[in-house]
Amino acid sequence: MKIFSAPQIYQADKSTIEKQQISSDILMERAATQLFEWIHSRLRGTQVKIQLFCGIGNNGGDGMALARLLLEHDYSIKVYVVNYSDKRSEDFLLNLGRLKEQKLWPDFLNAESELPEISPDDIVVDAIFGIGLNRPPDACVGRLIQHINASRAFVLAVDIPSGLPSNGAPWNPSHVIQGSYVLSFQVPKLVFFLPGTGVYINQWELLDIGLDTEVLQKTETDFELIGRPEVLPMYRPRLKFSHKGTYGHSVIIGGSYGKIGAVQLASNACLTVGSGLVTAFVPKCGYDALQTAVPEVMVLTGSRDKSISGIEIPFEPTAVGIGMGIGMDDDTVAAFSAFLKEMKKPMVIDADGLNILAKYPEMLEDVPEFSILTPHPKELERLVGKWKDDFEKLEKTKAFSTKHNAIVVIKGAHTITVYKGKGYVNTTGNPGMATAGSGDVLTGTITGLMSQGYLPLQAAIFGVYLHGLAGDVCASKNGYEAVKASGIVEHIGSAYMELLRQPEAEKSDNT
Questions:
Q1: Distance (Å, rounded) from C-alpha 346 to C-alpha 449?
Q2: Residues of CATH 3.40.50.10260 domain(s) within the chain?
Q3: For labelling, which of 113, 162, 311, 375 has a CA lying 20 to 30 Å from the CA of 477?
Q4: What count of other Cβ atoms lies within 10 Å of the Cβ of residue 49?
Q5: Structure confidence at residue 258 as a pLDDT band (50, 70, 90)
């Protein structure tokens, strides 16, 4: 699913109005009707008090139109106009007039107005600002937002929480609506998925307001939201007359004294996701542990006992994952550098492999094109430099990806895979996956997919999705706190089954 920027959404609105030969207020009425249907289907006329706070632009117009529909269905409502400017949009004024025709006159809140009383039992509809917000809210509006947040009422935000810009970090974190639920029109917004802005959104849902399908399909966006519909076509089913050699021979390189478990997790994930053969390359101290813990994995060792000082693979691997637990000893760095010069195929680089690249950036020139780098935020900062907010972080990552022709997987709550100018935002995963070894499992997962013939970008996107889905299945059985990296590996098979499971609606259609 495409993630549109604010200018692209405005253009889609404009094109829809022109192609469908409708007025802008008709499009607004569609939006309000969808909002009303969502609320009405859940409340069914329950006499809870609904307080609507409407700005004076088109977001406020949506709120006004919604208020009229609620009034027509006998809901108990109170409407406020947040009067932060002398300018009004035409559609806001039109819907204000329609509401007055129903004998309801909103209260106007100005800088000197007292803050209205809000009960924790009320429902608050936030329709103050939309995606066009390009400056900090006035102080009086900021106080109102703080008042709403402190009320403990259920807050339903229209399209986007007020005070949250669609293309940057908030100017004042306390002047942003904390949305209990966000009802967003047609397409999701990037701010829903970034660490610094997603914290203002508890849950969100899309409402279809009938924007032109052709425009939505043809518009190229910088970001896409990756869910089951996007991932399922990537899946490569197994062939009946295949054998282990059909699915490649992966090599997982890493480990040092006390950190052999990282290689065990990555190797096990690599094998579990479907690599035909897996060989682990570790220092001598890891031999017995790996042979015992994962008997299906073959083991090669270097000459040293506690760290890797040279990497020699006596065959040509199909895919390589490297860096987990490898350490940063001088000899290890030299071995890593030599291996980069020797290896010509794309590889997956994680953990200390990334830290070595950050410390010795000249080595980046030797990283094979289309390689996949899987940093957590601090490792990414070492690679691309500090950033002021998530948007600058993404721009820096895009520039890094373009310069080195590499795929960068930014790990987090909504892991984002970046290749050159495009980002792919993942939808699976949960807080329980913030646990030691989870990243090692991801490296093994992506490596195992590459060994089966998935192209690097596909392997990264699919691997991130599958890894998160395995974590979700694990959490559903054990709870967030009990999710372990080894548990994620154990549920990779269930994640495949969940991905391939036919939805009930499709089953009904086929009967």
A1: 13
A2: 2-220
A3: 375
A4: 15
A5: very high
Between CA 47 and CA 42 the distance in angstroms is 12
- The DSSP secondary-structure symbol of 331 reads H
Location of structure tokens 């040092």:
256
> What span, in angstroms and rounded, lies between the C-alpha atoms of 92 and 473?
46
Give first-to-last CA distance, the chain, whole Å: 29
Query: Is 511 a residue whose pLDDT tops 60?
Result: no
Q: What pLDDT score was predicted for residue 166?
A: 94
The answer to whether residues 64 and 136 touch, using CB atoms and an 8 Å cutoff, is no
Phi, psi (rounded to 5 degrees) for 372: -110, 120
What pLDDT is attached to residue 507? Answer: 53
Q: Given a cut of 50, is residue 346 above it in pLDDT? A: yes
Coil, strand, or helix at residue 472? helix
Burial 202-216 (b: 16+ CB within 10 A, else e): eebeebebebbeebb
Half-sphere exposure of 426 (CA within 13 A, CB side): 25
Strand partners, 424: 224, 417
Share the mean pLDDT of the chain.
96
The HSE-up count of residue 101 (CA atoms within 13 Å, CB side) is 11
Residues 6+ apart with CB under 8 A from 50: 39, 70, 75, 76, 77, 78, 122, 123, 124, 125
What gap in Å lies between CA 283 and CA 225, rounded to an integer? 40
Closest CA to 102 of 139, 68, 61: 68
Q: Hey, how many other C-beta atoms are within 10 angstroms of the C-beta on 44?
A: 8
Report pTM.
0.95
CB atoms within 10 A of CB 77: 18
Residues whose CB is less than 8 angstroms from the CB of residue 461 and which lie 6 or more positions away in sequence, other chains included: 226, 230, 231, 234, 417, 424, 426
Which stretch of DSSP H or E encloses residue 396?
helix 390-404
Domain with CATH 3.40.1190.20 in the chain: 248-500
pLDDT tens digits, 16-29: 999 999 999 999 99
What is the dotted CATH code of the domain comprising 2-220?
Answer: 3.40.50.10260
DSSP string across 20-43: HT--HHHHHHHHHHHHHHHHHHHH
pLDDT tens for residues 187-211? Answer: 999 999 999 999 999 999 999 999 9
Provide CB contacts within 8 A for 340, sequence distance 6+. Answer: 363, 366, 367, 368
Tokens of 411: 């790990």
91-110 residue pLDDT tens: 999 999 999 999 999 999 99
Assign 189 to helix, strand or coil: coil
Structure confidence at residue 339 as a pLDDT band (50, 70, 90): very high
pLDDT digits (tens, 9 = 90+) for 372-407: 999 999 999 999 999 999 999 999 999 999 999 999
* Burial environment of residue 458 by CB neighbours within 10 A (0 to 12, 13 to 18, 19 or more): middle
Which homologous superfamily is 248-500 in?
Answer: Ribokinase (3.40.1190.20)
